[in-house]
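Field reference: sequence -> structure
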Amino acid sequence: MDKNLRTAAIGITVLIIFGYFFFQYTVHENVPGENMHRLASSYLEEGNYDKALKNFDEVLAEHPEYKEAHLGRAITLMQSGDPHSAMNSFDRALAIDKNFAAAYANRGILNDRVGNYEQAVSDYRKAVELDPEMTEGPGLIWRFLRNVSERPPTLIDRADYIEEELKKPASERLLSVPEIDAEQRMYKK
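Structure field:
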């Protein structure tokens, strides 16, 4: 009986996964530029920033109001070390949609990295205000797929930490630890 139950559970899981991908790629309404955006996002996840940037730029050349492509472009620029251009792309995404929580979250990360701590706190808090699920941080599946055993700090954890450090005299503050900061993840939903 246990073997049959296990086989049924595996079968149901496979059907659910198949159904999800079938819906996403056949029934789900395709947004113009979405396939190129997915490819660019894939390059970004792999750390292939040149290809990611090229593909995000291609999407935006044809669909300049595609806010997710502006976000992807901004994250790519941030990860590749161009904070000024990244900030412009985050701002462009937010000009298209002032309620784009993921853009606020990632712009907060950029502000945090470049030392604009008050603005980082503001962006982190705005992101969570717009999307309260961001307080949960990465889920178990995300952590499992990336082999992350401990739950990383959430946006609110970081915002609270920064605020506490800013209350201290400047000589006592610890706002950046480059080894840890380099591993800070981008926010994607």
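Note: Residues 100-189 form one domain.
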